[in-house]
Amino acid sequence: MAETYEFDWTQIDWNDLYPRLLLVAEGKLNRLAWRGSRFGPIPGGQTSHDFVQAAIEKTKGGFRVWNPEISIFQHLVGVILSDINHLANSTENQISHCQKIKAGA
User: Fold this and answer.
1) Closest to 79 (Cα-Cα) out of 89, 65, 61
2) pLDDT over threshold 80, residue 1
3) Number of CB atoms found within 10 A of residue 93's CB
4) Phi/psi of residue 62, each to 5°?
5) DSSP designation for 29
6) How many Cα atoms sit within 13 Å of 46 on the Cβ side?
7) Where are the strands (E) in the chain, listed by range?
8) Predicted TM-score of the model (pTM)
9) CA 94 to CA 12: how far, in whole Å?
10) For residues 28 and 84, is the Cβ–Cβ distance under 8 A?
């Protein structure tokens, strides 16, 4: 685990930040193809809330290191987009797409 920056998480205005992060996640999820179709089922049934929560947990836990030279919003957006892109390129998403093609759907 990487070294974490000492940050007072209670100082974040979650009522402002969280909805903006959800909007970013939802927008990205809606622009990608899931299992071969736009708006298809996302592998694992994940939602925008799941990606936002995971980004926060990874940052708080030190698994994703925040460079304090950028805002916490910018950092969390980067984590969210990265995680969504990894899932979109995952074997699970690709295999489901290939199975759909073979089945003639």
Assistant:
1) 65
2) no
3) 21
4) 85, 5
5) H
6) 24
7) 33-34, 37-38
8) 0.84
9) 37
10) yes
Question: Could you tell me the CA-to-CA distances from 1 to 58, 59, 78 in Å, in that order?
Answer: 10, 11, 19
Domain boundaries, the chain: 12-102
Output 56 or 35, whichever has higher pLDDT: 56
Contact 76, 52 (CB under 8 A): yes
47-105 residue pLDDT tens? 999 999 999 999 999 999 999 899 999 999 999 999 999 999 998 888 655 455 555 55
CA distance 74 to 66: 10
CA 99 to chain centre: 25
Which residues lie below 8 Å from residue 34, measured CB to CB, with a gap of 6+? 40, 41, 42, 43, 88, 93
CB-based contacts of 48, cutoff 8 Å, min separation 6: 22, 25, 26, 29
